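Sample pair:
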Amino acid sequence: MDGAVEYLGRANEKPEILELLQSNNSDGVCVLSIVGLGGMGKTTLAQLVYDDPSINESFDHKAWVCVSDEFDAVNITKTILKSIDADSRDVNDLNLLQAKMKGKLSGKRKDEPQNL
């Protein structure tokens, strides 16, 4: 092999996810869930999509966040915000964090004319 990862079992899902993420059918925020039992390749599939060159070409920002069983919306939001805004202040109010993140991400797609 040439260093490429061979991904078996869910090969059809990556192109489907890429198409969903890159379509302009969403009126706002799009949430896409990858669900399944442990060991089914959910994280690998998400990483393959995240690392796909077409994602970098389509979006201004992207963030990788690990979510554990101890779901903490404040820390998850802070992690995303810090990945798109290195100067973000250390705020602990979820509403303020989400408002700031919304302001940073609203309408941020590379293929939209106002962002060219």
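Residues 28 and 106 are 8 Å apart (CA to CA).
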